[in-house]
Amino acid sequence: MKIDVVPALELSPEACESWSAAQASDPRFDSPFLSPHWAQAVAQAQGPASGVRVAIQRDGAGEAAAFLAVRQRGPTAMPPGAPMCDYQAVVARQDVTADPRAMLRAMGVSRYDFCHMQAEDPGFRGHGRGQCTSWIVELGDGYAAYEAERRAAGIGVLKDIDKKRRKVEREVGPARFTALSDSRADFEQLIAWKRAQLAATGQTDLFKTPWVMRLIEALREVRDPAFGGGLYTLHLGDELAAAHFHLRGGGTIHGWLIAHDPRFERYSPGLLLFQDILRGLDSSPYKRLDLGAGDYRFKRELSNRQQMVTFGFLGAPSVSTLARQAAYRVRQVAEALPLGPVSALPGKAMRRLDVLRGLG
Asked: Which of 67, 101, 126, 243 suits 147 as a labelling partner, its CA being 20 to 30 A distant?
């Protein structure tokens, strides 16, 4: 088995084409986070010392057949763009069995920490230490069919959104939806709202990190439907009420940065905007809206498909692997104790440290 290791920004056009073909061969790979363009965008934003590299496993004929992108720091690695990367997987042709251990070994990586690995990925099965659900809205047959399907399932979320839309238009003003907005002011307001959310909930301000803003700014400029970012806005009257910045690629729009003006909270402007985006898919190249992980009621009610993702690590015998195993053992013991919020502290500490590692 031959495995090449290439810096993301040095991928050849042929390698990118083979990667994109492998991605298109399996519906579970239909995510912009699994595109070669994501790894390259992250590497460009992080600069020459990014450490974003790609292992390319070749088949018996020497053709590129499987791809694993990582951000390497010494003997350890994380997904490129973590903690902003919502999916991980080894992207491989269906006729190839990828060997992620061999791919990591070729890169000189003794431990790879993942946070949103697709649970079906055969190379990482059994290496997850926990899992959660990503919630997906499939609209292969269009919005009207999706609306009927939700109604037949006894889920009234779309009807409730329609009621709120009528109410806000009576009390505030007409709702105006803009897809792929060019407004700099609206983009900056979204970032301000997101930073306020993070501060209010005691989370790390991701947007203080220069490469994060460079990445988002660069993606905002990319209008290629095959891969890029997109600002979606909802105005009520003349006021910006909600704004989303999503990643686009393949047949998917992936929900990424979501915020709204607290003054309009009672009208659920974020849900109004999601409904507008879903309706707009009928006239777009996209057929699904991925709402990402997180057990929120609106995600459960809007979604009609789920994707399980896992967190954990894949490691070879090494000091770094032993350290990670010990950290997970402490976390497992703590979470099994009846100590209420105290039981969750080791897990929270690990997640916070991983966020800081990814931002560094």
From this structure: 243
